[in-house]
Amino acid sequence: MSFRHPFSGMRSLSIALLLVLGCFAPASVLAHTDEPVASPASEGSAPLHIPTQIGKEVSPQESGPTFGLPRDTVFALVQPVVKQEDERANIRYVFLIAALGFLIAAYVPRSGSEEETSAGQGPTNEETHTAAI
Amino acid sequence: MTPSFSEQIFTRIRQMGVVIGGVLLLLLIGSFVSGIVLSFFYVPSPDGVYQSMQMIVGVPLLSFIRNFHYWSSDLLVFLLFLHMTRVALTKPTGQSRKYAWWFGVVFLFVIGIEMTIGRFLRADQEAYDAYTHFFLGTSGIVAGYVPFAADIANFFSHETALFRFFILHSVVIPVGIVALALVHYIFAPTFRSMVFPMKKALEGSSSAASAPAPSRWKRLLAFPSMRNLLALSGSVLLVVCTLSILVPAPFFPSPFAGLEVTKPSWWIMWIVALENVWGLMPILLAPPVLMLALLLVPVYTKDRPGPDLGTALYAGSIAVILVLGMWATNAPQVAHTEHFRAEAGIDAHGDGHTGH
Fold first, then answer.
1. pTM for this one?
2. Cβ separation of B245 and A32 shorter than 8 Å?
């Protein structure tokens, strides 16, 4: 009967923990402090309205400075973040399209190729997969 | 004959493509762990939630964990697209692959619901805009056709709504995600063909008594797929950590009642494009239509060389998501809920007629 040391897996576990801490510790120093965009609501004592805003119990008086501001004012306040998110979304689309392009190119057969690894030529079942693994 | 450089690259991409499913598991675990940490500091009550969010984004370590939570889920969706494309290209035919595909599609949509509810919890202007879509969609449209829809909308409103969404996001749906992932992995032949030989090798070598057996890690790393999985997982973790440090997750001001001034996440933007044309109705119709299209892919996929209707159905669905998404991203912001309210004569509180 072979004896297995009870802490034989601990070395791997501690290395994994150290790696995680190694990522998180410098990150905690380097990470941005995400100050939200200044708004009248964040300065006042207005409660958050997510569940109740559409509901029935909040009155304009209760909702304080968040209620009744002109649309243009709020729009101008929020737009910089919206624009920034649009730009980031565009970058994601470009990356996704590029990645999909590479993936499709990898599976579509090239002329003269003998390998059968595409939507055009296979693989069509798990045996072919096992070969790739 | 030595393969050309491009052929080597494509072979490498195919080898990496096979292990994307394993990386999704890593991102899922990353989202869960970071979510658990955040939940200790999050206050799911209307009065304290925005302040707790401000506290989270104000403390560097918590801010990093929030960014990690955001980016790992974002990359999860990104890689899900790639994973699905790889499976679609290699044909989801045969009983087990079909079931794996169907459970995977349900998994995709449950992840979408989970991430949407996660946006509600952010408690900022974008959260309010997303919640307004949900509330008006269920109470203003679905309730007209389905009797109990108004009760659902009512259940998820008022003071307790945020807490109920929090329970959904942190307990109920994650349990469903884990269950779906398990079933998906059981059916996925790629996963089985990776795991079973490894398990066999580990068990087989441990019983050999004559020569000193190599360590479990060495035996595992003898499999190229395991090496690829570790390499890709490490790269993805590095990308998530780098993004979490350099690119903070968005956080808008506290919500302004009755207004819609933001756009949703990139992966849901294709529905916004439809909303820009047809109003709120597409948020209820478009996701089920896409789900149906994706569910039908294996039905029309043939286990033979060459493109078929299944491949075309998948390619068409992805093309629609990308083209409409990019269009809506670059189009001016449209206040769908404000227009809906104005047309229905609903004021900012959800009841009564404004008369304009």
1. 0.81
2. yes
